[in-house]
Automatic annotation (TrEMBL):
Protein name: Putative membrane protein YhfC
Pfam families: YhfC
Transmembrane annotation, as ranges: 6-27, 39-58, 78-98, 134-151, 171-189, 209-227, 239-260
The organism's place on the tree of life at top rank: Bacteria
Organism: Paraburkholderia rhizosphaerae
Entry keyword set: Membrane, Transmembrane, Transmembrane helix
Length: 276
């Protein structure tokens, strides 16, 4: 059964939209908030190192290298707890170290060069780390499914994936033919919420680092881990996907509104200072 052209078009449009979102947001607010590209680049690097390498290496260690630990992880509760904690610890330790370095560097230069230690630094960093997450775990994966759908319509999917075991090939085939336009909407909701969460966590961490708080690291780890719980429960079939998406929307919408208000005030403050 081929994938409907309308479904394929929806997936392509959604993927292009989300791929451009962090870039457009950065360019849109760069001048009003005086954003520096270096925190954004640092955020990209931190996600690549701590999420794509360290976190995945830790998961590989838990699942493959140690049979005893792998056995424990077959229990859904243990899987959820270990999974969300590994994500929270790896990503927030990386964010904490990066922001400590950023704050020390910018504080030393603030009086001499006017480098800002205000919240827009967190926005630039959050767009970097959140944008990297969106691309690595969202856009590139979505592109893969779009290619699979095109190959399915051309009757070439089986030949392209001939090296896979037959059961894996059949699972991919069933997932491809079950794609619907709603999948594009789900992708936008999930990845958009994740980007909002990354920016919110960056603001939390930046304010804690700026205040000299040690407690901000465990607080951020706990917050990040809790945000991952619905998705982890969905992987264990304990929570329907529609419930997971509803939870994320209910959290992300008010958080996004709060962030918009925060950075709008920052832009107004900076504009008034420049006029003065």
């Amino acid at each position: 059964m081929p994938v409907a052209p309308f479904t394929l078009a929806c997936l392509i449009v959604a993927t292009l939209f989300m791929a451009a979102l962090p870039i457009v947001l950065y360019l849109r607010v760069r001048k009003p908030l005086g954003l520096d590209r270096r925190p954004a680049i640092l955020g990209i690097g931190v996600f690549a190192l701590f999420a794509m390498l360290i976190e995945r290496g830790l998961n590989d260690l838990l699942l493959r290298v140690n049979p005893t630990l792998a056995g424990w992880l077959t229990h859904p509760t243990v899987f959820v707890i270990v999974g969300v904690l590994s994500i929270g610890i790896c990503q927030e330790v990386g964010r904490f170290l990066a922001m400590r370095w950023l704050f020390a560097r910018r504080s030393a230069k603030e009086s001499a060069t006017g480098a800002s230690t205000r919240d827009p630094v967190a926005l630039a960093y959050g767009l970097g780390q959140g944008g990297a997450e969106l691309w690595f775990t969202g856009v590139l994966v979505q592109v893969q499914w779009i290619v699979f759908a095109w190959l399915e319509n051309e009757g070439k999917l089986g030949n392209a994936l001939s090296g896979l075991p037959i059961d894996a090939l059949m699972r991919i085939h069933l997932l491809v033919v079950s794609l619907t336009p709603a999948a594009a909407g789900v992708f936008i909701l999930e990845r958009g919420a994740a980007l909002v969460f990354q920016i919110g966590l960056s603001v939390l961490m930046w304010r804690g680092v700026r205040a000299g708080s040690v407690a901000v690291l465990p607080l951020a780890i706990a917050a990040h881990a809790l945000l991952e719980v619905p998705a982890a429960l969905s992987q264990t079939q304990a929570l329907p996907l529609v419930v997971v998406d509803t939870i994320y929307v209910l959290i992300a919408v008010p958080l996004a509104i709060g962030l918009i208000r925060l950075f709008r005030r920052e832009a107004q403050t900076m504009s008034a200072a420049q006029v003065g």
